[in-house]
Amino acid sequence: MATAWRALGRVIRWWSRSLTGARWPRPLCAAAGTGAFSPAAITTTRRHLSSRNRPEGKVLETVGVFEVPKQNGKYETGQLFLHSVFGYRGVVLFPWQARLYDRDVASAAPEKAENPAGHGSKEVKGKTHTYYQVLIDARDCPHISQRSQTEAVTFLANHDDSRALYAIPGLDYVSHEDILPYTSTDQVPIQHELFERFLLYDQTKAPPFVARETLRAWQEKNHPWLELSDVHRETTENIRVTVIPFYMGMREAQNSHVYWWRYCIRLENLDSDVVQLRERHWRIFSLSGTLETVRGRGVVGREPVLSKEQPAFQYSSHVSLQASSGHMWGTFRFERPDGSHFDVRIPPFSLESNKDEKTPPSGLHW
């Protein structure tokens, strides 16, 4: 099973590089009942599907037909897709317009000494970039080994416990370039408990899944806690780090206010050399004037290996401050096969709380 799942990554990367001059449409296939894709997944004919990489005892079934990825414009609600990095099937719920601060393309600027406000490297101008709120197919979740969890969205609970969190399983944020769109004749092509509560099949539409009123109401009510506004990216020695922070809300604890954020981090190896994350080093500055240093082994209890076969790892974590804003930055230490180490910069990002807190997050309640 693991072999078949790793094979998917190779297929996707080959397929992504082969877009120019490709013949369309192309069938998308999976081993029935496994959520595992094989190199036979992308062919130019439905009739001749190779079985050499098929999981033992499984039958390869067509689950859809690939479409040409959009170079311009946005994908609509109901668009089915395959994630180009993590390989899961999903469906688009709605888009977000984020500001991407990419330090790799920042204009040249003099280096500055590190300080809590600027963190000292480059001045970065943000550009608009499209992300999507999506549902992940539950059949694929057990096979996504390069993520610490298969949900990227957590909320503060509504009751008095200021540290209580709850998560919405199978809900994710996906960048536009991560979408490999496909179509399906199945009226329920994605297995997720919210699929039929959020989307309605309408064969007259393209894509044939339209938003129900429950999805629109849920988006409107939870907008302040779901909205993706800033994305930060930086590459060091071919390791790209992408950070997406989210404000979660404020709670009172011991006669003081505690402000909470979650942040999602993706690590990507853009080279063919194998490396392993060994340590993290964070610096957290609070508007109250405190500067905290955090060091530790790995991230979320793991020390992921980034290789040509599995080049990316993604995880989410949380931070709280006794001030309404702050900053975070730091480094990840990686190890090469020869035992040498190198540090990868985590792009500095702001922790802001400029949200309307009159309506607490409501999770799955309407």
Compute the number of strand runs. Answer: 20
β-strand percent reads 35-45%
Low-confidence spans: 1-22, 38-54, 107-120, 362-366
Major β-sheet, in short?
Answer: 11 strands, mixed
Helix content: under 10%
Q: What is the count of distinct domains?
A: 2
Specify the structural class: mainly beta
Mean pLDDT: 80
What is the straight-line distance between the termini? 39 Å
> Which outline best applies?
globular
What is the element string, with H for helices and E for strands?
Answer: HEEEEEEEEEHEEHEEEEEEEEE
Number of helices: 3
Protein name: DNA polymerase delta interacting protein 2
GO biological process, one term: DNA repair
Organism: Saimiri boliviensis boliviensis
GO molecular function: DNA binding
Task: Give an overview of the whole structure.
It is a single chain. Helix content is 9%, strand content 41%. The chain is mainly beta. It folds into 2 domains: 64-106 and 126-228, no CATH class; 233-358, ApaG domain (Immunoglobulin-like, Sandwich). The strands form 4 sheets. Strands 1, 2, 3, 4, 5, 8, 9, 12, 13, 14 and 18 form an 11-stranded mixed sheet that branches. Strands 15, 16, 17, 19 and 20 form a 5-stranded antiparallel sheet that branches. The longest helix is centred in the first third of the chain and has 16 residues, at 2-17. The protein is globular. Mean pLDDT is 80; it is low at 1-22, 38-54, 107-120 and 362-366.
